[in-house]
Amino acid sequence: MFTGFMTNAWLVGTIVAIVAGVVGFFIVLRGSAFVADAVPQGAFAGAAGASLIGINTLIGLAAAALLGALGIGWLSRRGRRDVATALALVVLLGLGALFLSFSTEYAPEIYALLFGEVLGVSTSEVLPIAVLAAVSVAAIAALYRPLLLSSVMPELAEARGVRPARVEMLFLVVVALATSMTLPVVGALLIFSLMIGPPAAARSVTSKPLPAVALSAAIAVVVVWASIAAAYDTNWPVGFFVGAFGAVCYAAGRGWAALRGRQPARPGGWRGAGEHEVPAANVRV
Amino acid sequence: MTRPAAGPRGDAPRDTGEPDTGELLQVDGVSLWLSGRKILDDVSFSLGPGEFAGLIGSNGAGKTTLLRVILGLQAPSAGTVRIAGQPRTRRGSLIGYVPQKILLDPDMPLRARDLVSLGLDGQRLGIPLPSARRRRLVDEMLQAVGADRFGDTRVGLLSGGEQQRVLIAHALISRPRLLLLDEPLANLDIASEQDVVELLGRVAREQQIAVLISAHDMNPLLPFMDRIVYMAAGRAASGTTAEVVRPEVLSSLYGQHVDVIRVHDRILVVAGRGAGLAAVEAAPAAAPLPGHADLPPAHLAEGA
Amino acid sequence: MLHAIFEPGFFSSGPVHVALAAGGVVALVSGIVGSFTVIRGQSYAGHALADISVTGGSASFLVGISPLWGFVGVGVLAAGVMDMIGIQRPRGRDLATGIVRGAGLGLAALFLYWDTTHSDVTGATITILFGSLFTISSSILPAIVGLSVAAVAIVAVLYRPLLLSTVAADLAAARGIRVRLVGLACLVAIALAVSLSAMTIGTILSTALLIGPAAIGLRLSSRPGLAMAWAAAAGLAATWLGVLLAYDSFYWPPAQHGWPVSFFVVTLIFLGYVAVQGITTRVRRG
Fold it and tell me: Which of A116, A179, B125, C69 has the most crowded Cβ, counting Cβ within 10 A?
């Protein structure tokens, strides 16, 4: 399984996994799982539109992903974030349905775009994917500190001159880029499993931010390798294995955290539990 | 913009007709209208290096808004804010800020020392390279606030008070000239209140930093407070406790009769009973608010 | 002029009647249940349940049962799983939702794959994912109505405890309300509503009708009952107008099979939301 047409799948799969792990770390940190889910789905609509007009699917993906991400950002300014995400998502999907209704031959491609197709990566696509990946990771590296600070405590970031709203928009753009290039191998519906399962596991294992990002990427790579191998063996869709292994990662992370007996933060004194505790009069969680 | 400071504005008399360039924080006539409501009404006070001031007022008095104006997050409708003589637009690392916030996620992969480390340069692009100098600075700061015990613990696992120590370290590590804290005492027990006030008093004196703490109860701050800025309904009176916490001053601030009761070394401010309109007229509303000597005291009850 | 709006045969067409009826019922239910979904911040869960019920739909092809029970059964089951892994706690809720959705969709992928290789159901993917209001047989209308009534009934019976536990959980618990149980019941109601809509009008519309009209209603009124009424009305209007436009579009270019209903309804809801947002923001600014 390591020769010929499979080489592309392994190569692209690895690249995709690294990007998913890195970007996914921040998605999990910011609690934006819905956004991470919505953008690729919207991007799928773009792919449909692109194939209709005959331009490169990747460009259509990127354009729709950007449109979706920025749309979410724009709508969130005026309303709730989750409502904005849902609406932006369905609009893009509605457009996708429209484009699909115009074209005639669609069923197999749609399946591949949605659920992933191991063999669906052509050699000509490897380079653009690699470039997009490099750009995404570089952007995350550049934004690392402001992104970390504004994800953890926006008030602190604000006080330092960082504008959380701007950082959010930039991050959404990176998410759009990252998802638009991960669609070919893993599929639109399941890329986000890759973006949230491995990071969820990584953050349970290590408490240091930078190592957690690296571990996130590493776990994602393992998941993708395992999924590709399994898909090759059984002929079942790659997406199924990604979804399953992603869930396993998440469960493993939760299990590890439970084993370590982690208690959530409790309100109260400066001395913490164990030293003389004065019960707080006005405790607010 | 200079104001002739005829009334008492602190311990030492100031020169009139000269800009107070020696002051670290200068708030001059700051007013703010939002959605048709006057949130801040001509607030003026100043703070020098090493001074410890309490921004006292109940919820809704405008304390957090004022802090945001000082931080530069909110532009005032009128008036200016100067930090070390520079107008508000230049932020830099002159101000440290400790928000009233608690992190509740036990899985968040960020240790106390990581959060403090972000205080050095959390707004800069790129990934921080680990260096011995950085680590030493973080260790020193953790020790200074008494957080070295849990420096390697996840922030989400710390208690509220412990997190606050870390946030103070985060704010102090970049050596600010001014430190703002938003209701740091709100969720602490009495012993911890004393701990944090003591630490902040020490920091103010030793580092010659101006410290401004917002609180709804001035009593825990009394031992260390050099200056008080008392806010009610968007208006403020500043000066020493003796100058500001008086029935006449507070009554004109609140727009209704207010009593000040001292019990041992505690101060209680209570709303007057049954006096109504008569008390407002009888209260010497003619007494100028400290810091507002040249302001006609007439239009007091309106606003908010 | 009327002729231009209502293309010939609209009112007499059988499929149109079914579409209006089924679509109308689904829109009403989604508007009501959706209001609680949005208030409780469970929009993602609503969306996820719609997609997961697709898993049920694809499984039903394999097992040979009616798609309706596949959708509904798996949807309710997924609601239970979500509740179990703690979706009701705000922290980490989205993460848990996403993981369940990912796993569920992975299963859907598998089932669909088996469907297409083991049976000759062409276009099954599209049908399940996008649904088609015009191809429902009228025989399942009674079932749709029945389940919709069930979903609304749950919400109606639990109206006050649900509202209280959403807005002030501690207060509700202090009054003896089983907050967890009430939350689970609400989630089941949501699952019922979305699996019905996913099956009849597709997963896209399911989410759109759940969230969009509810968001509009909440913008227009701060009273829950009135907001729900607005939501139901908005959803109904968008759906019926969408059906009309879809029917009319048979005569539009390019292809002679019309534009999809889902596109029209979604666009109408989106435009409505943006319009309401704009108007109310202007009003609030004074």
Answer: A179
Q: From the options 3.60.15.10, 3.40.50.1010, 1.10.3470.10, 1.20.120.50, give the CATH code of A5-256.
A: 1.10.3470.10
Instruction: Give the A:B interface size as CB pairs under 8 Å.
Output: 169
Residue B15 pLDDT greater than 60, yes or no: no
**Band of the pLDDT at C4, cuts 50, 70, 90?**
low
ipTM over 0.90: no
Q: How far is A272 from chain B (nearest CA, A)?
A: 6
Distance from CA of B98 to the nearest CA of A (A): 8
The answer to whether residues B252 and B299 touch, using CB atoms and an 8 Å cutoff, is no
pLDDT band at C133 (very low <50, low <70, confident <90, very high): low
User: How is domain C34-133+152-272 classified at the architecture level of CATH?
Assistant: Orthogonal Bundle (1.10)
Going from the C-alpha of C31 to that of each of C38, C61, C210, C236, C242, the distances in angstroms are: 10, 29, 6, 8, 16
The shortest C-alpha distance from A20 to chain C (Å) reads: 15
Q: What residues of B are in contact with residue C286 (Cβ under 8 Å)?
A: 35-36
Helix (H) or strand (E) holding C172: helix C169-174
What SS3 state is found at B269?
A: strand
Q: What pLDDT score was predicted for residue C90?
A: 65
Q: Which residues of chain A neighbour B123 with C-beta distances below 8 Å?
A: 145-146, 149, 157, 160-162
Q: Does A262 touch chain C (CB under 8 A)?
A: no
A93-97, A99-103, B109-113: which has the minimum mean pLDDT? A99-103
pLDDT at C31: 93
B36–chain C Cβ distance below 8 A for any pair: yes
Place of tokens 């369905």: A90
- CB contacts, 8 Å: B104 with chain C: 91
Cβ of residue C257 closer than 8 Å to a chain A Cβ? yes
What's the fold here for domain B25-238?
Rossmann fold (3.40.50)
Give the model's pLDDT for residue B6.
Answer: 39
Identify the pLDDT of residue B215. 92
